[in-house]
Amino acid sequence: MNYSEFEAADFAGDASFRAWVLEGTNAAFWESWIPAHPEKETVVQEARALVLALRFRTNEISQGEMESVKNRIDQLLDEPVIKKNNERPRRQWYYAMAAAAAALLLFAGIRYLSREEVLVGNMIVQTGFGETKTLQLPDGSVVQLNANSSISYPRKWTKENVRAVTLNGEAYFNVSKSPAGLHPKFRVLMPQVTIEVKGTAFNVYHRHEQVKVLLEEGKIIVNDSLDMKPGDMMYFTPGQHQRLQADPAVLTAWKQHRLLFRDTPLINVAQQLEDIYGYRIQFRDRKMEGLLFTGSGPADDPAMLLKAMATVHQLKMKQNNSVIIFE
């Protein structure tokens, strides 16, 4: 595949690119390809924004329909932009309009849902880079959603069906225990991990095929067999899991709109900043990746933390839009 000739719509329609944006798979390829093609940085960012806006569901739309939507996006982006009063065309504004139109096309093409089916369909809530949201589920449970994350759940909850949500990214749950008229069980679903909740408060991180579950209150059962008690943290990777000692303050600092690290390798700090803000962070020397960092800062000012990383270890930092290089 010759990605060097791709435009934003081509990337957004590519299965490998979508899987990387939405699920973190194929990360090794894209995390090496993008820095090697700096001329595509703007195009890739536009494509990433488009994928997050549309949230393609490949199990609900055929390849032919997907191609049709992509072609329509191409047409929208290729149409001329009318200038007024000799002003320069506003490409970002027009691109947003094109993305919105394409989203409507995609929604109209999926399943041809009737009005009744839409009403009982899934609700999807998502956050952008640097954004958090607090939402209340139909049973009264409260979810705080971290940046670059999404959660989906049925619009209508019943006594017959288990209360269930699907998470991608990171969220903190405060679950209502056995609400009247609804199923007593509550589950958080992810590709390799299922959490059954017994009325509790806990944090779930799900990115890059990794799941971290921190229990603060109550009781949860993971994958039908692993009991967790308050203070426990479980770490899951494909095919294995382990119980870890963790600092709850570090893992849940994002709820207080803070970034907090204690003796954390710079490579892990960089990964978190990439996940939350969309940065592309590179280290010229691999030895830098293992340097430990302790620091804290406001979540709305990640630049402060980046400068602290450079200052503590006497590194030079260069920034070109979302690409940051330490040397």
How is this structure best summarized?
This protein is of the alpha+beta class and 327 residues long. Helix content is 32%, strand content 29%.
Q: What does it look like?
A:
The structure is a single chain. The protein is an alpha+beta fold. Helices cover 32% and strands 29% of the residues. The protein is built from 10 helices and 18 strands. The protein has helices spanning 8-12, 15-23, 27-36, 41-54, 63-78, 91-109, 115-119, 248-251, 266-277, 302-312, and strands spanning 122-126, 133-136, 142-145, 150-154, 163-174, 186-189, 194-197, 201-207, 210-217, 220-222, 226-228, 233-237, 240-244, 258-265, 280-283, 292-298, 317-320, 323-326. Strands 1, 2, 3, 4, 5, 6, 7, 8, 9, 10, 11, 12 and 13 form a 13-stranded mixed sheet that branches. A hairpin with a 2-residue loop joins β12 (233-237) and β13 (240-244). The radius of gyration is 21 Å and the shape is globular.
